[in-house]
Design a protein that fits this description.
The chain is mainly α. The protein has 9 helices and no strands. The protein has a domain of 126 residues. α2 runs parallel beside α7 and α8 packs antiparallel against α9. It is globular. The two termini are 25 Å apart.
Length: 190
């Protein structure tokens, strides 16, 4: 899934309680699993490496895959979740719960780029038949499923959130999702 989608879904699922102090921890947890990917991409672009080389070669290098495995580890997120629940640290619990939810949202939508979600227990990768982006692996349908979930989460959040700022961000994210889906999946077939 795309990272903003994780944020909307996680807020809709985990932000149900009237505890606004958990909003930022949920948002941080929804982005943390992808943080190494952002660093990787920024470094590669700063190094003037072509896009195709970044995603077709460098992304799959063992060094980067090891780094990505840490942030995408279900066992590590579960360990943090239990630890911070026992220690009664609600903000850190929310971060770990959001990270765990991010991992579970990613599992059914990654094919060639599947993460080692069960590291350090195993290097196994769940290779989903559906990708959220790759049209060779039903990417149009994976992206449509993501778009639908984001729209549903947005409806939930729209009802829950009242500020213009929050609602503006919801509209912005949904508009971007529609544009990306149209340009990436519908326009080429027209």
């Amino acid at each position: 899934m795309n990272t903003p989608g994780h944020s909307l879904l996680n807020l809709a699922i985990l932000g149900r309680a009237p505890r606004p102090e958990l909003t930022w921890p949920i948002l941080i947890g929804s982005w943390l699993p992808d943080a190494a990917l952002f660093v990787f991409y920024a470094w590669a672009r700063w190094s003037n490496i072509p896009e195709a080389q970044i995603w077709d070669e460098m992304y799959y290098e063992p060094f980067w895959q090891d780094i990505f495995a840490i942030g995408n580890s279900i066992p590590l997120a579960l360990f943090g979740l239990v630890l911070f629940m026992v220690l009664k640290r609600p903000r850190l619990t929310a971060v770990c719960a959001s990270m765990l939810l991010h991992h579970l949202e990613d599992l059914p939508l990654h094919h060639d780029d599947a993460h080692r979600h069960f590291w350090p227990l195993t290097d196994y990768r769940f290779i989903s038949p559906v990708s959220y982006w790759d049209s060779d692996h039903f990417g149009r349908y994976g992206a449509l499923a993501e778009l639908s979930l984001v729209a549903l989460a947005s409806i939930v959040l729209w009802r829950r959130l009242r500020s213009r700022w929050s609602r503006g961000l919801i509209l912005l994210f949904n508009g971007l999702y529609l544009v990306v889906y149209f340009v990436g999946y519908l326009q080429p077939s027209l």
